[in-house]
Amino acid sequence: MTSEVKAPAMMKPEPKKKKKIASLDRRKARAGWLFVLPFAIGFVLLYVPIIYESIMYSLYNYKVVSGTLTKTFVGWANYSSALFEEANFVQTLIKGLKEMAFDIPAIIIFSLFIAVILNQKMIGRAAFRAIFFLPVVVSTGLMESILTTSYAFSGTSMDLGMESEAAKSASDMALEGLLFNIFDSLGFGSGLITYIVSAVSSIASIINRSGVQILIFLAALQSISPAIYESCQIDGATAWETFWKITFPMVSPMILVNGVYTIIDNFTTDSNSVMNVITDTYASAVRNAKHISAAMGWMYFLVVLLIVGAVAGIFSAYVFYQRRD
Amino acid sequence: MTQNMDSKPVVKRESKNKIRVEFERTALSERLKAKYLSTYFLKRAAWFIFRFLLLVGIAFVVIEPFITMIASSFTAPEDFVDSTVVNVPKHLSVGIYKAIVRDIHYVKMFFNTLGLSLGCAILQTFSCCLIGYGLAKFKFRGAKAVFFAVILTLAIPHGTLQSAIYYRFRYFDIFGIFKFFSGGLTSKIGWLNTVLSKIRILPYGCQDGLNMMETVAPLLILSACGLAFKNGLYIFMLRQFFRGVPDELEESAYLDGANTFRTFVQVILPLSVPMMITVFLFSFCWQWTDDFYVPLFFATTKPVLMTNVAQSIPLPSLQLIYKNVTGGSARYARAMRYGCGLLASSPLIILYLFCQRYLVQGIERSGIVG
Questions:
Q1: What is the reported pTM?
Q2: What domains appear along chain A, each with residue ranges and CATH number?
Q3: CB-closest option in B48, B164, B367 to A50
C-alpha cells in the first residue's frame, strides 16, 4: 500500500523539474545569442553580402553607366587576365611567398627568444618591455609610409639626402660582408649563412613585426608553473636542457598560434607587396571599370588558406598539449 | 672549509638576552674568491652582460627611427646645407614645426582624428567584449559557427573585399528597404509610388540605396558589428580571457537575482579592465593610423585626418621660408616628413606610455594559452 501511494507523489514533481532545467538552459542560450547579436547581424547583413559581391565582382564585369550599375557575366576571364595578362601579379605573388618563407621563421624564432629573455628577472625589465611593444602601437602603415617613402622631389637637387642614403647602404653592405666572412670561417653551410646574414640586415623590419608575437609568447611563458623549473634545477638540468625539454614543448601550442597569426598578418598588411599590387589594381579599376583586383584577392586568399592549412596541419602533429584537469 | 669544520663554535653568554657565538670564519678574501671566481658566477655575469647588451641593441633599433626623426625635425635651416651634419643638428630650431602646424591644420587634424578614433575604439571595445563574452560563457546552438565566422573575418585579407566593401556602402541597403522607401522599386505600381513620393521618408533621389561615402557612418557600423580592422583578434583575445573567469562569480550574481546583461556589466566588466584597456589601445592606435578604410570611404574628399598627413606634407613652403637656402632641399623634405610623422605619432606614444602597464597585464591575464 505504502509503495503505491508514494509512487505517484514521486512521479509528479519530476517533469516539472526537467522543464525548469531545460528552460534555464534555453534562457542561457538565448542570452548567448543576444551577446553575439551585433556580430551575427553584421556578419549576415554586411559581411556575407560583401563576400558574395566580392566573388561576383571577380566573375562579372561591372560598369557604372549614368549612375546605375550594369554587370555582364564574364566567367573566369577576370581570373585568367589576372594570371596571364597582368604582368606583375604572378611575379609578385611568388616573390611574396618566397619572402614569407624567409620572414616567418625569423619572426617566430626572434620573438620566442626575446620573450624568453624578457621573462627573466633583470634590471629595467619594465622599460625594455615597454620599448619592445612600442612597434605594436606605432609602427603601422602610416609610420612606414613616412619613414620609407622616397620623395620624388621635383626640381632642384637630391644632393645631400641621396648621399647619406648611399653611404648608409654601403655600410650595410660592408656589415653583411663582414658577417658572411665570420660565419664562413666558422664553417657553417652557405645556405644558413645567407639566411642569418639577411635576417640580421632586415632586423628592423623583423622587430617591428614581432610585437604581438612577443606578447603572446610572454603570456605563454608566464603560464608555465615555476614548480616544473624548480624540479628541473634540482635534477641538475642546464638552462639549455630546460629550454628544450620544458619551455619549448610548453609554448609549442603558441608557436602554432603565432605561426598562423604571423602568416595572416603578413598577408594582410599593406606593406605586403602582393597587397600593394591588389590595391593599385583596385585604384586603377575604379577608373577602368575592370575588377581584376577581386579575382586577384580571391586567388591570393586561397593561397593564404592553403599555406595556413599546411602549416597548421604539419605543426599540430608536433604540438605538445599539457593535459589539465 | 675543512679547517673550519674542525674548530667548534664557542657559545658565550654576553648578557641576559644576548649570546655571542665565536667561531673561526674563513678569511674575507677566500670567501670573495669562492663567490666571484666560480664558473657559475662568471657564466651568470657573462650572460647578464650579453643579455643586457643585446636588449639595449634591439631597443635601440626600435627607438632609432624616433631619434632620427626628432633630431632631423629640429634641425635649423643652415644645417641642411652643412654636409658635416648627418643626424645630430648643430643648430636647433622649431621652424619645421611652425610650418607644419600652420600648413596642415594640425589642431583640426588632431581633434578630427581623436574624435573618430575614440568613437571607433569605444564601439569596438564594447561590441568585442559582448561578442567575446557571449562566445566564452554561453553554450548555444551555432556558437561554433559564430566563432568560425569570427576567425574567418580575421583571415580574409581585407584587400580582397575592397571593392565589395566600397560598393556595399556606396549603395547601402538592407533587404531593399531604402530602395523601397525612396521609390526605387515602386515605380511600376502607380498608387504606391505616389503615396511614397508624397511621404518622402528618404530623399527621393537615392534609388540605389544610401550613399554613405565621405561620412564616418561605414566605419561606425563596422565597429559596432565587430567587423572593423582586426576585430577578430580582439574577439579571440577577449573570448580567451572570459573563459578564464571562474563561473562561480556569475552563478552567485544570478543567485542574487541579476540577469545576464547586468551580471556582465557589473561583475565581469570591472574584472576585465586591463584586458579592455589593451583592446582599446589596439583599436584606438590602429584606427588612428589606419590607411585602408579611411582612403576607401573618403575616396574623393581628403578629410583632415592624421592618416593623410603623409599626403599633406607641405613641400612648396620650402622656397617661401628659406629663400637663401640653395641645396639640401631633399633633407628639408625629409625633415618635414619626419616632423609630420612625429606629430602624428606622438599622441599615440603618450597614450601608450600610460597604458603599457595594462597591456602586459592584460595579455598575461588573458590566458591566451589556456
A1: 0.76
A2: 16-73 (no CATH), 82-316 (1.10.3720.10)
A3: B164
